[in-house]
Design brief:
Elements (H helix, E strand, L loop, with lengths): L6 E6 L6 H10 L5 E7 L10 H11 L6 E6 L3 H8 L3 E6 L4 H15 L4 E6 L9 H9 L10 H13 L1
Length: about 160
């Protein structure tokens, strides 16, 4: 009987997806056989990129690695995990105060779906200050954000700049 594939879910709005996010995915692949990068659609956020644009850019970014699956979801992340029979969540932590809110979210997820386990990965030192919010802020002021995002994402940001 073949071993069961170890799958994990890495969810976020990823608007935009940063080098820190990419680092978390790559490191999670050292532990899990498959990582589902889930574009979480938040009703309280106004994204820079549409859901479809984010799905397209991440599909393009990870096109060379069949161990990464890109999907999207409009509901609770744990409901997606239940539906897809995924028992592991990946969360990235920066030394900037993420722990308390992430711990609270993990506790709530466990109450909603007791079979789920959250795995925290510390953001690599060279990426700990990067957040999607900061990248959007610098981008909005026409600053150079290309060193903070993967080249594929940078290409989408440049295209969006030309369209506006």
């Amino acid at each position: 009987m073949p071993a069961t594939k170890k799958r994990a879910l890495y969810a976020g709005t990823f608007d935009p997806f940063t080098n820190g996010h990419e680092d978390i995915v790559k490191r999670a692949l050292g532990v899990f056989d498959e990582v589902i990068v889930l574009i979480a659609v938040s009703p309280t956020k106004t994204p820079l990129f549409s859901k479809d644009e984010r799905v397209n850019m991440l599909t393009e970014l990870f096109a060379g690695d069949e161990r990464v699956v890109v999907d999207h979801w409009d509901g609770l992340i744990v409901d997606y995990a239940k539906q897809k029979n995924i028992g592991s969540l990946i969360r990235g932590l920066r030394p900037t105060g993420d722990f308390e809110s992430e711990f609270q979210m993990a506790a709530m997820n466990t109450k909603l779906y007791p079979e789920i386990e959250t795995y925290f990965l510390m953001t690599a030192g060279e990426h700990y200050f990067i957040s999607s919010t900061m990248v959007r802020e610098v981008y909005g002021h026409k600053g150079d954000i290309m060193r903070f995002v993967p080249k594929t994402v940078g290409k989408y940001l440049e295209a969006k700049k030309k369209d506006s």
